[in-house]
Amino acid sequence: MSLGEKIDKIHFKARSNKWLYYFSIFCRVALAAGFIPSGMQKVLGERFTVLSPNHPMGHFLDAFYQTGYYYTFVGIMQVLAAILLLIPRTVTIGAFIYLPIILNICILSWSVRFDGSFVSAPLMLCAVLYLICWDYHTFKYIFPFHSSSSHINLPNKKKWKKNFHLNFLQVFSL
Asked: CA 120, CA 116: separation in Å to the nearest integer?
């Protein structure tokens, strides 16, 4: 069995569990709720937060605010990513727009040891990576290890497994 077929099998098994489907909806809504308020503040030209310039994160955010158009652009992209996550047909593109923004926030938070998003940014990063994996079937053909001849349809909602796994990794076992 090729690597592409193994990944397809794991993806099919995950997509056939209704609890993972509900978790993907939760991730979409939670991620959108995290970016809409902060993005709108940037679009409206307001400061995202006020921290002391003595703190490295406060110094960075002040300089970020002073950039002008770039500050607004990041806000527009945050709002766009959040809206795309809420629309079922555009979740994948929304997740791919969300990914570099939250990765940047995560690295920044860790590098300046900012307690405000020290935990939330990595959790948001994990959630967006989950959504990208959840929609693997929409972009799997760009990978070199995936042959175009192997095609597995997504499971029908009527055939979803309703069991809740306490051991999350048990879902992905072959």
From this structure: 8
Tell me if 41 is assigned to some domain.
yes
Residue 91's domain comprises 3-157
One-letter identity of residue 12: F
Confirm whether 10 is domain-assigned: yes
pTM above threshold 0.70? yes
Token pair of 111, please?
Answer: 């590098």
Please report whether residue 136 resides in a domain. yes
How many whole angstroms separate alpha carbon 58 and alpha carbon 23? 34
Question: Which residue, 5, 2, 21, 4, is CA-closest to 160?
Answer: 21
Query: pLDDT by residue (tens digit) across 74-128?
Result: 999 999 999 999 999 999 999 999 999 999 999 998 998 888 788 899 999 999 9
